[in-house]
Amino acid sequence: MTKPTNIEYRRIFDAVADRYDAMTSDRAARARIKWFLARARGRVLEVGAGTGRLSRVLRGRGFNVTATDNAPRMATLCKAEPCTVCDAEHLPFGSGS
Asked: Dihedral sign, CA of 23, 24, 26, 28?
């Protein structure tokens, strides 16, 4: 079995974006945040932000968050506006940005 390409991943996540958002919860995001807050400070780059629940909670806690996702539909639904559509292997940010 071959690994899906980035384009195939994009199609898959675009197709399930609305259901994905309905299935995820703020409660699950808060559990991830609790773990994260014990370890992080300052700026956050969330690669594969999906619909942005985690990014939104992080922003609410004072973090400077940049959200990205490969799937345009996920980025459209992203609750952590803005969300940059990009491939995780080719991020459109400069070194140290």
From this structure: positive
H helices of the chain, where? 6-23, 26-37, 53-60, 72-77
| Mean pLDDT of successive 10-residue stretches along the chain, which has 97 residues | 80 85 75 80 89 86 90 87 89 81
Q: Tell me if 59 sits within 8 A of 80, measured CB to CB.
A: yes
Can you tell me the distance from the alpha carbon of 67 to that of 48, in angstroms, rounded to the nearest whole number?
A: 8
Alpha-carbon span 55 to 74, nearest angstrom: 13
Give dist(CA 22, CA 5) in Å, integer. Answer: 26
- Residue 84 has φ and ψ, to the nearest 5°, of -85, 130
Residues in contact with 2: Cβ distance below 8 Å, sequence separation at least 6, in sequence order: none
Q: Is the pTM of this model over 0.90?
A: no
